[in-house]
Amino acid sequence: MKCIEIREYGGPEVLVPAERPVPVPGAGELLIRVSASGVNRPDVLQRMGHYPVPPGASDLPGLEVAGVIESGDAQAMAEAGLTVGDRVCALVAGGGYAQYCVAPVAQCLSVPAGWSDVEAASLPETFFTVWSNVFDRGRLQAGETLLVHGGTSGIGVTAIQLAKAAGATVIVTAGSDEKCAACLKLGADHAINYRTADFVEQAMQLTGGQGVNVILDMVAGDYIRRDVECLAEDGRVVIIAVQGGVKSDFNAGLVLRRRLTITGSTLRARSVAFKGAIAQALKLKVWPWLESRRVQPVIHRVFPADEAGDGLPSGAARAHALMQSGDHVGKIVLSWRAA
Question: 128 — alpha (psi -120 to 50), left (phi > 0) or beta?
Fold first, then answer.
């Protein structure tokens, strides 16, 4: 099969086309003939040497795929209501940048009715992450207010749509007026340009001085101090990345007086059982929104995975260059020609 390897740690140019044997599914697993692979910031971190591969996972990058089931554990598939030939999307711990990928059956979901494989490949990583952190860990409820940092990222556009569908008010931060406008078009109630306005001051004004209930934070660093300042009583901030650094000074007195919760999580190394539980929640609560198009895919650009261009050795390399530029709104996806 064709795949994309990390030749060495470094810039986008280290992502090169290669050939490897087709992987073999084991107990509780299935093999997907991949049509499309989602691109995510953890892939960029892995390429740079900052995101270690979990034990037993493929060293190929790629955490989400969509395609057709080729083979697998018949009993596990039957119990999940799946069979050979079904179209699925899957969250994987690695190996997604390839024409074939092994996935745990529990982490696979049927492609929503009417959706393309490219659209479906944009779902698993961000939807699993947002559901686990905003709704399970952050306990967002209808009528509450969610603040999302990085509203035009893959995570951001997913959080906007899921929170709105669940009945919450959504405030986002973004780095330009154009990106703020894009967030509003996706359904955000308010968008703050963090380069020209203080998000703490703005969030407090927008909530009538009460503060926000939940914050989804991909920045960390000094943002945690500011998050604490704009949380409502019993508010929760959930950290899912540390792009701004791992250290922060914050007012612990506010945490005490307002009964705040500061928490966080990573998903890649969690157990199949844990991820499978998220998959079941998504199937029950979110998949109906997708099938009715109440929640829509937001695809910024699709690259042919292994085709060179723009001086880079692969479409995957060009996809990573775009992601690092920050010029995208929504998801970036790789497409694979038929094996």
Answer: alpha
